[in-house]
Please model this.
Amino acid sequence: MQFFNDYQPPIRLVIISLSLCLVLTTASFSYSTLSSINLRDTILILDRATTNSIKQLQENQEDQSELETKEFRSFIAYLSGRIDFYCQELERSLPPVDTSDLPCNPSGSTQLTSSDILSSEMIVETKEDEIAKFDESLDSALGQFDEMLLKEQEEISSQQASQRTKEVGKSATTAGSFGESGQAGNEQQDNASEKTASANQNNEPAGATGKGTGTTTNQTSNTSPKKRHPSMEVDDDIVARQLREAAEKETDPEIKEKLWEEYRKYKQGVR
Amino acid sequence: MLSTSTFFKKKSQCKTSLSLLSMLTLVLLLSGCGPSVPGHKVSDGVAPFVATQELPDNELLNVSIKVFDPGTLPQDPDDRRGLSMEIREAEARFVPIHMKHTMQRSGYWGAVRVVPDDDPAAEVLVRGVIEYSDGESAALTVEALDARNVVWFRKTYAETARPEEHFRTVAERKDTFQDLFNSICNDLIKYSLTLTPKEIETIRNLAELHYASSMAPDTFKEYIDTKENGYHYIRYLPAENDPMLSRVRSIKTRDDMLVDAINDYYDMYYRDLWEPYSNWRKFRYEEVETMRAVEREALTQQVLGVAAIVGAIALGVGGDYDTAIRTKPLQDVMIMGGAYAIYSGTQKYKEGQINKEAIEELGDSFSSEAEPLTMEVEGETIRLTGSAEQQYSNWRKLLRDIYAKETGLEPAQNPTITPPQQ
Model:
């Protein structure tokens, strides 16, 4: 401390700055080294998962349906894409990392032969494949529409709630202010409670909801999109579903963990 | 004994007095009536048909009620007083929504929806025109037809509400013109009950094919044909597991959900409109009744005044000289009294002017309340249908591409989408 105090204030300031820089650089280096290690691990594990999947696909190709094969190929392509992404991350990291022992090529794309396999040996674009692609586009478009409808439903529900609040307030005011009008207000309130009761007891007449697609007037209706499409309750798309299923089936704990991690990242939109 | 000439003179006087009296009575009677409302007057206290037990799904038909045509306002300025096209536009949405609630409660129908436009996928389509509506009376022309293009009926229903019907109304359940709504809904049920299960199945299949044809005309247009009389029929049905039909069904489900969302907006609109609309009808009815009473009184006074003057003149001219002289004071009183009665009647008319102004004000006030609500719900409808239409054209294109791949046939570049003419 005496040694430090011997210096003039400007020099002290320089020493403090230099020390801070040293600490930060060391921390950053340690962090980047740590994340590089993590990335390397991830690449290697995902590569194992990809190789296993390709092997599995080749073994079961005859038993699988066209759709299953197609889905499996998309899954492998997705994993290869992720490896590609992590390789690029690694190349961008500081200090530079040697990726020669990893399934990454110098330009950043995977050395993995999966894409070659997919494009040459395994993918034979048939008429069914093309139709399946269109179907996929249609499903995706319908999915977007469902999302739009769900948002609309939420908006409607909130508007209905505020309308009910207003109605109740208005009835109360009316009842307090006028004799005759108050009677009408009471009737409206009675009607509202009657309606709620009937909805709660699910005692609507047959015609009210029809064939399950009937229109209704409140948010407890049977027609909300969530209820009508059980598949939408688990809102996994094709990639998320494949990742989830692969993670569930995987026996290797390392691969299992990485697949779950990929699933979570995919669901959060972190790619 | 009367001489012949005196007899004829007396008879002629009597005739004149009688015809004058009958004319006055007619004028008085007419002055008490409201405007003439077109159409078949529905009975009072019409009970709605309600299914005693839950009907199986395959017996229920879905109904689409198109937003009504608001019609035109009466030509007569007196009948048009306090009415406006803004009010009619509001009623054009209010009426089908209330009809939907009435039909839903019957238990005889599947999904009942209000649609902003003709619905190509409708199993049963109900359309209507507001022929007349002034809060006191209403006349609606209603037409119902099914997916076969068979018109069930086209009828004009009219009702003039009784005073008590303006009170104790309940949203969604009991409108001022509930008898009219019940009559329409009962007629629809009566017709639907004449359909055989086979006919119901045909209607449902046709509705699905019409929809499929509007989405994928290349694939589905060949399944339907039209007879010379304009009725649609099924040439043959696609396989139940037809992949294209499955795709169309997926789309149809979304379409139904979209219409449900639109109906949620319509329902909110209905609830927002319920109170001001009920009040407008009630208060307008009260003002019109008061105005009519005042006008009746004014007219009675004026008619009596005229009658007194005419009587006085008749006394002076009709009788002999002696009679004329003897009744001179009476004639003067009658003339003066008659003139006062006419003056007093004119003053009464002026009093009625206050009611007329009140009717105008009520109309203006309700118009200004209803118009933004109508614009809002219309805006929501256009927004939803507009954004959906963009999606639909995308889906149609995908379906065309799939069709081209499946069949190896190139579809027409710009297929004309022709929804069924219903």
About this structure: The beta strands of chain B are 40-41, 61-66, 109-115, 124-133, 137-146, 151-160, 224-226, 232-234.
